[in-house]
Design a protein that fits this description.
By secondary structure, the protein is an alpha+beta fold. The chain has four helices and 15 strands. The strands form three sheets. Strands 3, 4, 7, 8, 11, 12, 13 and 14 form an eight-stranded mixed sheet that branches. Strands 2-1-9-10-15 form a five-stranded antiparallel sheet, with no helix packed on it. Strands 5-6 form a two-stranded antiparallel sheet. The N and C termini lie close together (5 Å).
């Protein structure tokens, strides 16, 4: 499972999925620029003390989200609350599956390599979200879990330690032409959407390239 991803920060415009124009809404641009300045484009799992929040596309705008899904106002739902398997969305993530978002990225870390598209372009990672009132602060808290899928292509060489080194997982990237389906708030999160999302993700997932050769080393997760 993935515990780190980010944006290159090289000044490349980030287009909204399905559109030719880059993000231009003032609030979203300011949020993204501030986040770059504070975190150097590196999204990390959020902790109680290191409260690094990350950009999340909700509808047509960016917001800052806590990377580890909160089930209620008391905090993240458990130690494995940062990744949501695509094949368990209906069983273990059914409520969050009704509130979907996208994560902008140009790379992710899995095993030793850093993975990206060959041209370094921006891609979008599927996420599920929860919005609650923080019991401690009284603030409205947007939180999310990254959706992961079976590793394919070159990424299939990286095995997960949690599976005993037998299974490969990777973030679930979505092409721009499917993003509207994933984000549609009127569309229910159901088995049909899971199946369509898995199919839509296949080519982009296979296109991911390691920054240096994989050696089959098992990952921490």
């Amino acid at each position: 499972m993935c515990a780190s991803y980010g944006l290159s920060g090289d000044g490349t415009p980030i287009p909204l999925p399905g559109e030719d124009e880059p993000i231009s809404e003032p609030g979203s641009l300011a949020l993204l620029n501030d986040w770059f300045a504070q975190h150097n484009g590196h999204a990390k799992i959020t902790g109680r003390h290191a409260k690094n929040l990350n950009p999340v596309l909700v509808g047509d705008h960016l917001a800052l989200g806590w990377w580890s899904l909160w089930a209620d106002g008391s905090g993240p739902r458990g130690r494995n609350s940062f990744n949501a398997r695509d094949d368990s969305l209906m069983r273990h993530w059914s409520r969050a599956f009704q509130h979907r978002a996208l994560l902008p990225a140009t790379w992710y870390d899995e095993g030793k390599p850093r993975w990206s598209l060959a041209d370094g372009s921006v891609f979008w990672i599927a996420a599920v979200t929860s919005t609650v009132i923080d019991d401690e602060t009284g603030e409205t808290r947007l939180s999310y879990a990254m959706v992961t899928r079976r590793g394919v292509g070159k990424a299939s060489a990286v095995k997960s330690k949690s599976s005993g080194g037998t299974e490969s997982r990777m973030p679930l990237p979505l092409p721009a032409d499917f993003a509207a389906e994933w984000l549609d708030p009127e569309r229910p999160g159901d088995a049909r959407l899971v199946a369509e999302t898995q199919i839509a993700s296949e080519d982009l997932a296979r296109a991911m390239e390691p920054h240096y050769p994989t050696d089959g080393t098992a990952t921490l997760f």
